[in-house]
């Protein structure tokens, strides 16, 4: 299937849509500590960001739209640090801010919590790997389509790559999450 170029009006609509979506994510992430937050957990945030990243990567890499793809992938990537920083990998909510410092909300130390942590971390690692594939395609001037790798394919994160351990320090339970290097 040949890559179709976008018309000028399609480019304008696309940039307006992406601007609106990224602004909405930013607003929703800023409300993450509210009880009625639209994005209360890391998994929901990743589910919200994946279609935006897929749309950015569906932009044709050739001129005149190649710069749009690069511009929005840069903007998307630069926003990730702020967007991800307030969420807990335990899958149980956000990090609360108390007098400028952030601390993790810990709710129990059950097997379900450990499993939720493992699932959140797997999803995050898969998302970051898909982002890496997107940057590889951008830097090589390629598109991600049916003939190559798509962002919908989730890279395999193996069980041994993620270790969630519990440690007891001075009577309080903490979660320790580590990722092994390959």
What does this structure look like?
Residues 151-161 have a biased composition (Basic and acidic residues). Residues 146-182 are annotated as: Disordered. 48% of the residues lie in helices and 13% in strands. The protein has 182 residues and is an alpha+beta fold. The protein has one domain (8-179). The strands form 2 sheets. A two-stranded antiparallel ribbon has the order 1-2. It has a two-stranded antiparallel ribbon with strand order 3-4. A hairpin with a 2-residue loop joins strand 3 and strand 4. The longest helix has 29 residues, at 111-139. It is globular. The chain starts with 7 loop residues before the first helix and ends with a strand. Residues 95-107, 146-159 and 161-182 have low confidence and may be disordered.
What is the compact description of this entry?
Residues 146-182 are annotated as: Disordered. This protein is of the alpha+beta class and 182 residues long.
Question: Characteristics of this structure?
Answer:
single chain, 182 residues, alpha+beta, two-stranded antiparallel ribbon, disordered C terminus
Ordered list of secondary-structure elements with their pairings:
Layout: H1 8-30, H2 42-57, H3 66-85, E1 95-98, E2 101-104, H4 111-139, E3 162-169, E4 172-179
Antiparallel strand pairs: 1-2, 3-4
Region (Disordered): 146-182
Biased composition (Basic and acidic residues): 151-161
